[in-house]
Write a structure and sequence with these properties.
Order of helices and strands: EHEEEHEEEEHEEEHHEEEEEH
Shape: globular
Number of helices: 6
Number of strands: 16
Helix content: 10-25%
Radius of gyration: 19 Å
Largest sheet: 9 strands, mixed
Strand order of the largest sheet: 2-1-3-11-6-12-9-8-5
GO molecular function, one term: transferase activity
Keywords: Glycosyltransferase, Transferase
Family: Belongs to the glycosyltransferase 25 family.
Protein name: Glycosyltransferase family 25 protein
Length: 327
């Protein structure tokens, strides 16, 4: 677990993807990474309209990043994270191990009775596993996040808990109560409705589980095994949808793909930072209107690194909480 404290958060490398023309985003990421003592490598994004048609499998554009992203964390260039990101990832790693590592009783026994795949007589609902009482598991050998994962989808705009009737995705949920890094419910939002985490669980609850219908690829990690499978299942097959939808197919085993081990957390750990200025600067692929944002903010991140840059540069610890409980 100590590897999570290093400059790449326990991964081999951290890649940041963005258009080279967006020097504003690159400068912001360089400062943010330095303030977090994180080492990042920039990868130049390519506008879709410049991709040669013959390089596109069958129908649409596809991502070539994973040729050089073995065992790495991949971030979009406009994300932000909490000052306590290493503690968050430490807890995520413990939960990932519980979801995928064998119990000491034997190589085929797991805390989740529906892992690695539900079978005909598997339960549709599995009791929640309290984070404070995680069972002992076999120590991982290859990664602090476990030995048996393909993708960690830890930056997103929404995620469902595994559906009861899905026969491909394990069902267990690890529930952490009173997580001080989780914003109050009134500040949480998602593209995925119903928002079960918000509607069912108490304030400041964090959940860890297998991914279902993720939206946005703000941040995700791929194992060496997962990178090879992703190239095979996504880059070299019919690219008919946006990239986050293709990751859904990859994780869930849809549209001719096999299911893979994809883990996630709600709320996500990496979120969009929205700087003060014209709304039109928010995206290079979507229309965010002609309005103007007066104050910089980051979605659902309490102790934002970007918004606490002054304090971090000056060595202070009086951090600004974007989403305090008393407001």
């Amino acid at each position: 677990m100590s590897a999570i404290q290093n400059s790449t958060l326990g991964f081999e490398k951290i890649f940041v993807v963005g258009l080279p023309s967006r020097t504003d985003r690159r400068d912001g990421m360089i400062l943010q990474a330095a303030l977090s003592e994180i080492e990042v490598n920039f990868v130049d994004g390519v506008p879709g309209n410049t991709v040669v048609d013959k390089a596109i499998p069958k129908t649409s554009e596809h991502d070539r990043l994973h040729d050089g992203a073995i065992g790495s964390l991949i971030l979009e260039d406009d994300v932000d994270w909490d000052i306590r990101i290493r503690k968050q990832l430490h807890d995520f790693a413990l939960s990932a191990q519980t979801l995928t590592q064998p119990l000491p009783d034997g190589p085929a026994t797991y805390a989740d009775p529906t892992y690695p795949r539900p079978v005909e007589n598997s339960p549709e609902v599995v009791p929640d596993i309290p984070f404070d009482y995680l069972p002992a598991t076999v120590a991982p050998k290859t990664s602090p996040y476990g030995d048996d994962w393909d993708l960690l989808w830890i930056g997103h705009c929404g995620m469902h808990f595994p559906f009861r009737d899905n026969k491909s995705i394990p069902k267990a949920r690890i529930i952490r109560s009173n997580d001080v890094t989780v914003a109050p419910k009134k500040n949480l939002w998602t593209f995925n409705i119903p928002f079960t985490l918000k509607e069912t669980y108490p304030e400041h609850t964090r959940a860890y589980h297998h991914a279902q219908e993720g939206v946005c690829t703000l941040g995700y990690a791929i194992s060496q095994r997962g990178a090879r499978k992703l190239l095979h299942e996504v880059a070299l097959k019919d690219v008919s949808d946006a990239y986050d939808i293709l990751l859904r197919f990859f994780c869930e085993g849809a549209k001719g793909r096999k299911p893979h081990n994809c883990l996630t957390t709600q709320p996500a750990l990496f979120h969009h930072h929205r700087p003060a200025g014209p709304n039109s600067a928010m995206s290079d692929i979507g229309n965010h209107g002609d309005g103007f944002r007066e104050v910089s903010m980051t979605d659902m991140v309490r102790w934002s690194v970007r918004l606490n840059a002054d304090a971090l540069l000056e060595g202070r610890t009086d951090f600004v909480d974007q989403y305090p409980d008393d407001k």
